[in-house]
Amino acid sequence: MGRPRTPLLDRERITTTALQLVDEQGDFSVPQIAKRLGAQTGSVYHHVDGRDGIVELLRERVASAIDPKTLDETPWDRALEAWARSYRAAFAAHPKAIPLLMTSPVRAPRVLEQYERAVTLLLDADFAPSDVMPLIIALENLVLGSALDLSAPETMWVLTESTPTPKLAKALEAVGEGRADRSFNLGLAALLNHARTLRTAEA
Amino acid sequence: MGRPRTPLLDRERITTTALQLVDEQGDFSVPQIAKRLGAQTGSVYHHVDGRDGIVELLRERVASAIDPKTLDETPWDRALEAWARSYRAAFAAHPKAIPLLMTSPVRAPRVLEQYERAVTLLLDADFAPSDVMPLIIALENLVLGSALDLSAPETMWVLTESTPTPKLAKALEAVGEGRADRSFNLGLAALLNHARTLRTAEA
C-alpha cells in the first residue's frame, strides 16, 4: 500500500497530540488531532476505537505517571497514602484533563488493573466490601479536587478595602504559603483516620 | 445617544450568556458572548471589568445557589456540613465551570463575604487560625471533586472479560447504586470527625 516506514499516525502520537489539545483547551476533537498530525480525520479513526478510545488512551497516559509500586507498600494505610500522593501529582500535571476523565467511563485496561489492585489492598486489609469503593472514590474526589487546586494561583483570595474581610485576612495570614499542600495533607489525614475507624468497627 | 429602552447588554445578560457557554464548552470568550447577544465585543467590555470581571460574575451567579442560611446553623459542625452539601449541589449544576472557577483568583464581593462567614464560624468555634483555611480548602476540594463526580455516568467502571477484575466487580456490586452520594457522605464524615479532633486538641 506504499506506507511510509515511519508511520505518520500511531496510537502514541495520537495520544500525545490529544493530550496537548486537552492541556491547552480542556477538550479535543478528532479533526483537530488529524489537522495537527497532517492527516485525514478518517485515518485517525483507523488507529483508535473512536473518540472514546482516545479518551481511554489519554487516561492510560496520565495514569501511567502514578507510581504502581505505591500499592505494594505495607501496611495498607501507608500504601493508600503513597498512592494518593502519586495520583495527585500525576493529575496535577494535566489539570484540564481532570473533568474530561472524571466524567467518562473507565475502560482502559491498565487503569482498571490499578483499581483492581487498590480494591484488593483494602479487601485484604479486612474492609467491608461495601466500604471499599466509597473510600476509594472519596479519596479520588479529594485527590482530583486538590490537583485542580494545585494549578490555582498562590494568591487565591484577592482582598480589597471595599469588601471588609478581616477574619479571612487573619486566617490566610495564619496559613502562610503552601496552602494547597497543607489542605491536601489535612484532607488525606482525615480520610486515613476515618478509614482506620471503619476498619476497627468492622474487625 | 439613542440607546434602546431595554438595553441589549447588561451584566445579568452577559453573565447568563457566559454561563451558557461555560456549561457547553467549559470556557468562554468575550467575542463569543458578544456574538450571542448580537453586540460588538467592545460593547461587552463597556459593561464589565474585563474577562476576569466576567469570571467573577459567573462565580457570584453559581455561588448564589449556595443557601447562605446554612452557615447560621448551630453547632459549627452542623453548619459546616449543611454548607458543604449546599455548596456541592450548587456546583454540581455547573460542573464545567468548576476548573475555571477553581483556578481563577476570588474577587467577587459576595463570595468573599461567604468565605468571611465560614472563617468566622470556625474561629468562633475556637479552631486555631492556622487550621481554618486548610480545613475549608480540604472541604472544598472534596466538595468540588464530588460535584464533578455527580456528573459522571452511573456505570463509571466498564468491566470486560479481557481484563479480569474480580475484586473490583465485587466491590462495585457491594456498593450498589448511589455510589457518588455514599462516597461524598463518607468523605464529609471523615473531614468533620477530623475537624472535631483538631478542635479538641486545641481546646
Shape descriptor of chain A: flat
Rg of chain A (C-alpha, Å): 21 Å
Largest inter-chain contact set: A-B, 79 and 79 residues
The fold-level CATH name of the largest domain in chain A is Tetracycline Repressor, domain 2
Low-confidence stretches of chain A: none
The CATH architecture classification of the largest domain in chain A is Orthogonal Bundle
Head-to-tail CA distance between termini of chain A:
64 Å
Give an overview of the whole structure.
The structure is a homodimer of 203-residue chains. By secondary structure, chain A is mostly helical. Chain A folds into two domains: 11-48, Arc Repressor Mutant, subunit A (Orthogonal Bundle); 68-202, Tetracycline Repressor, domain 2. Helix content of chain A is 68%, strand content 0%. Chain A has ten helices and no strands. Chain A has helices spanning 11-25, 30-36, 41-47, 50-63, 76-92, 97-102, 109-124, 129-150, 166-175, 179-202. In chain A, helix 1 (11-25) crosses helix 4 (50-63), helix 5 (76-92) runs antiparallel to helix 10 and helix 8 runs antiparallel to helix 10. Chain A starts with 10 loop residues before the first helix and ends with a helix. The model of chain A has no long low-confidence stretch (mean pLDDT 94). Chains A and B meet through helix 6, helix 7, helix 8, helix 9 and helix 10 of A and helix 6, helix 7, helix 8, helix 9 and helix 10 of B.
